[in-house]
Amino acid sequence: MTSLKPWAARLPFPTSARWLLPVVLVLLFLAILIWLPWQARQMESNERQEQLIADTLWVEQTIRFQLGRHEEDLKGVANEILAGASVKRLHERMANELKTGLELKRVMWVTPEGDVAASSDEAPPPVATLSAASRDAAERARLSRNGVYSEPAPQTVNPAGTPGAAMMDYHYPLYRGATYLGTLVATFQLSAILEEMVPWWFAQDNQVSLLDRDDRILARRAAAGPGHGVYTHKRALDLPGATVTLMTDSVKTEPKLLPNLLVGSVIVLALALLWSLLALWGHISRRLEAEEALRQQMAFRTAMENSLVTGLRARDLAGRITYVNPAFCQMVGYSEEELVGRSPPMPYWATEVMAEYEHRLQNVLQGTVTPQFETIFQRPDGTRIPVLIFEAPLVDNEGRHTGWMGSILDITDRKRIEELNREHQEKLQASSRLATMGEIASMLAHELNQPLAAISSYTTGALNLLARPEVDPATLKPALEQAGTQARRAGQIIRSVHEFVRKRKTERRDVPLATMIDGIRALIDLQARPHRVTVHTELPADLPLVRADHIMIEQVLLNLARNGIEAMARVPLQQRVLRIEARHDAAAGQVAVNVIDNGHGIPADVAERLFSPFFSTKAQGMGMGLNICRTAIEFHGGTLTHRDNPQGGTIFTFTLPASEAKINGDT
Questions:
Q1: Which helix (H) or strand (E) is 550 found in, with range?
Q2: What's the Cα-to-Cα distance from 19 to each of 11, 25, 26, rounded to whole Å?
Q3: Angle, to 10 degrees, between the axis of helix 441-467 and the axis of helix 473-501?
Q4: 43-250 and 306-412 share one CATH topology?
Q5: How do 148-149 and 163-176 pair as beta strands?
Q6: Which residues does residue 643 pair with via DSSP β-bridges, in sequence order?
Q7: Deepest in the core among 156, 242, 329, 555, taking most CB within 10 A?
Q8: Distance CA 37, CA 45 (A)
Q9: What is the rounded CA–CA span in Å between residue 347 and residue 327?
Q10: How large a percentage of the chain has pLDDT more than 90?
Q11: Quick check: 294 and 287 in contact, CB under 8 A?
Q12: If we measure between CA atoms, which residue out of 188, 240, 250, 185 comes closest to residue 219?
């Protein structure tokens, strides 16, 4: 019997290699023990430097803000000088400025000749004593007409010329129009600026100095401590005309390493290891709970997607199908295995719209997609099904665009219903036109009777003339011409009626509004003549074409005109005027048509139900005329409304989409 080898001998690598990982871990542990305190010390040092920079910036802004406040106050003094204030008033104002800030030592008005016109001093000298740098600043202020600081310079304190505290003058030029009145000089003591403007808590831990352009010390506010030169920072005060730098020097020393480095590190690492084990256990528990919840959500989502009648299809950025649900497979007649992973062209693409598919695919590859569109899919047996597709981008949990998700609806039933509704609407409109012709049948017969009677009279007269022995053919010409004219008149009436009532397919084209009015003008006049109504048509010369089905719009015009004519049956003759007007609304891209009568108007209770089906104020009316008119106008994307005519009667207004083409002329 063969003995078993030890477990260690069955490992795929030699024994020495098994110790490599622990050794590496120990070395890593020792490296971390050394690196962590050094890194902590470095971070603390960086934090101290960054805190010093931030505090220095705050102090610099505080100093600049206080100096800016003095500059604004000096502008107020300058305004009083220009306003002609007295010397006493100027002295009081300048002395008051010194009280608001101890860093300000003197304010005086120096004339162009160098005389002191006013000062904050009780006994000012007659002639101003300015340093060379201050005189140079005064000249630059005069030329620029803006406030300028002089370069700081030590002030002499005795006749021997011993230097004292550094001073800095601020010159503000005084101009009345183009006349130079001198300069307003404010003298600042730099040491006082540090004493008054630097907070005590900052000066307690930092040595603060003001330096000139050569880094020479102008003023200093010192603090005790051993750490000078370790953490320093310089910040320019950005004074116009002067170069003054704020320098801060922290008294803090560099941070030291921990006293008991090894023990402290071991304790910290042990605690960190324990915490990490607890955190890992908690993380694993939460992950198991999340995975269980995810499985439940996936099961729920799968059941929900399998129960949907809406097809779902996911595609990646290359157009390749990555997911389909059972509803989509049933819709196109292909299984999930046949579709997932399939690249374009797809087996359910119909040949007649292949170009459309290719165009949409190119848009998808370019990163754009149409959110909603209709198209046609093809099943394996060749059956075409119309579908409505909604597509939206797929985004992963990191916000990256990974593809497109589409929802597909089979709209076969909807298309069938729309077709039935369209056919029903056409039949209803045809019935309405026939009903309209039935209502005006008697007037139509009377209108045709006149040209037919005239034709009979003219032909009878022509026959009588032919019965004479000698007949001049020229005498027959007027009678025959009149007979032909009356025949054409009767034919025009018959053609208008035939064109109006014949059944044909709805077709929208760009047509002139005047042409549609001319097409039914004979029928309008036929109804207007018995009521002795005058019809006026006013169309602008530049009225654009309208996009419309001319027979449907002619029916709307005829119905509205007939209603207006009948509404004026009982008004005085001079008021029986029916007007048809139009205007172009370029902003809305529409043409608005008004049919205006001077009739009895529409009562409020009738107006509420005016467009309701089967509602009519006529004894023999069907109540479908205005309802059909509104449906026809809404079919064209317009609206049909009415309002009271200020002169009495009613104004019906409907809108139609305007075409880009223009026509000239009017009716």
A1: helix 550-567
A2: 13, 10, 11
A3: 160
A4: yes
A5: antiparallel
A6: 651
A7: 555
A8: 12
A9: 17
A10: 11
A11: no
A12: 188
Is residue 138 within 8 Å of 130, Cβ to Cβ?
yes
Model-wide pTM > 0.90? no
Grouping H, G, I as helix, E, B as strand and the rest as coil, residue 617 is: coil
How big is the CA angle at 421 (ends 416 and 424), to the nearest 5 degrees? 125
pLDDT digits (tens, 9 = 90+) for 283-326: 878 888 888 888 888 777 776 666 667 788 888 888 888 888 88
Query: Residue 83 phi/psi, 5° resolution?
Result: -80, -5
Which token pair is 496?
């208008």
pLDDT tens sequence across 200-256: 888 888 888 898 888 888 888 887 667 677 788 888 888 898 889 988 888 777 766
Identity of the residue numbered 91: H
DSSP per residue, 496-533: HHHHHH-------EEE-HHHHHHHHHHHHHHHHTTTT-
More confident residue, 47 or 463: 47
Phi and psi angles of residue 624, each rounded to the nearest 5 degrees, phi first? -115, -10
Domain boundaries defined on the chain: 43-250, 306-412, 417-501, 509-657
Q: Contact, 120 vs 91, CB < 8 A?
A: yes
Q: Which two structure tokens, joined as six digits, stand for 198?
A: 């630097």
Report which residue type is found at 581: E
Neighbours of 235 (CB within 10 A): 16
Give the pair of three-digit tokens for residue 246. Answer: 């704020």
Mean pLDDT on 526-536? 85
R_g (Cα) of the chain, nearest Å:
50
Residue that is written with structure tokens 């009648």 in the block: 309
Written as six digits, the tokens of 301 are 């989502």
Which one-letter amino acid corresponds to residue 391? E
In this structure, which topology does domain 417-501 adopt according to CATH? Helix Hairpins (1.10.287)
- Cβ atoms 99, 176 nearer than 8 A: no
Environment class of 415 (CB within 10 Å of its CB; exposed 0-12, middle 13-18, buried 19+): middle
Q: What are phi and psi of 636, to 5 degrees?
A: -90, 0
- Superfamily, domain 43-250: PAS domain (3.30.450.20)
Which residue matches tokens 């509420």? 608
Distance CA 311, CA 375 (A): 14
Q: What confidence category does residue 458 fall into, taking pLDDT thresholds of 50, 70 and 90?
A: low
Q: Is 214 helix (H, G, I), strand (E, B) or coil?
A: coil
The Cα–Cα gap between 232 and 234 comes to 7
Measure the CA dihedral 376/379/384/388, to 10°: -30
- Spatial CB neighbours of 388, under 8 Å, sequence gap ≥ 6: 372, 373, 374, 408, 409, 411
Start-end of H helices in 333-411: 336-339, 354-365
The fold adopted by the segment(s) 509-657 is Heat Shock Protein 90 (3.30.565)
Cα 639 to Cα 617: distance, rounded to the nearest angstrom:
22
CATH fold group of domain 306-412: Beta-Lactamase (3.30.450)
